[in-house]
Design brief:
Blueprint: E1 2-5, E2 29-32, E3 47-55, H1 72-83, E4 90-95, E5 101-104, E6 108-113, E7 116-120, H2 130-141, E8 145-149, H3 153-156, E9 161-166, E10 170-178, H4 194-197, H5 206-221
Parallel strand pairs: 3-4, 3-10, 7-8
Antiparallel strand pairs: 1-2, 4-5, 6-7, 6-9, 9-10
Length: 225
């Protein structure tokens, strides 16, 4: 389910002005809903994470990030993946103009390295998703140290395990990393090592699976995420 909130009516709007000077009143809310297919974390398919050539545009409004229907950056990134022959199970990974990891095409990204859960800090430009915050909370409850910082692609290549999140898909394991040309990425971590990267069917890492199960259990109990 998604909720769209429009600006509503502005009493001070000038007849020929595209940018009214006054404040808007009574915003309109439109709710979109669609059925979701049944899902079990135990059988949830993993994704491949491919580095995008296209950079993430800066958040709307400077420091204020809005979740809006302005998806041109995402659409262009999706077209890049399609032009590169990516399958539907491939998620694009955005960097910003400073070559820092930001987020996935429709997700936040996390990875575990040496017993620490890493995710890009909000000042790099990702959406401050409710699922992102909830996963960090669940990880801390489980005793997993968490770090939000600025990371380069090479940092992710050192990951032992990786996953992406959003409110619809919950936690989805990443089973392989790809360079922009679709070639398997090589790195020092277990996820991108030569041995592990060649095994596209391997199971999620232990922390990923533990968080997947914890998230689903909390959702079924009605805990808010």
């Amino acid at each position: 389910m998604a909720t769209l909130i429009s600006a509503g009516r502005c009493p001070q709007a000038a007849a020929k002005s595209a940018f009214p000077p006054g404040e808007y009143e009574a915003p309109r809310e439109i709710v979109y809903a669609k059925p979701l297919t049944a899902d079990d974390p135990a059988t949830r398919p993993g994704k491949t994470l491919r580095l995008l050539r296209l950079r993430r545009t800066r958040p709307e409004g400077g420091e204020l990030r809005l979740k809006s229907f302005h998806y041109m950056n995402n659409i262009a990134a999706k077209r890049e993946l399609q032009a590169g022959g990516a399958s539907a199970s491939v998620e694009g990974l955005f960097l910003n103009e400073r070559d820092e990891i930001v987020e996935g095409l429709v997700s936040n990204v996390f990875w575990v390295r040496d017993g620490v859960l890493h995710t890009p800090s909000l000042d790099t430009g990702p959406l401050a998703g409710v699922t992102r915050a909830y996963v960090l909370e669940q990880a801390r409850r489980a005793g997993l140290a968490c770090q939000e910082s600025r990371y380069a692609w090479d940092d992710l290549l050192g990951a032992d395990e990786c996953f992406v999140t959003n409110s619809i898909q919950e936690i989805v394991p990443v089973l392989a990393l790809q360079e922009p040309d679709g070639q398997l990425a090589r790195g020092t971590g277990g996820l991108a090592s030569n041995r592990a990267a060649a095994d596209a069917a391997r199971v999620p890492g232990p922390w990923t699976r533990r968080l997947m199960d914890a998230y689903r259990a909390a959702a079924e109990k009605g805990d808010e995420a």
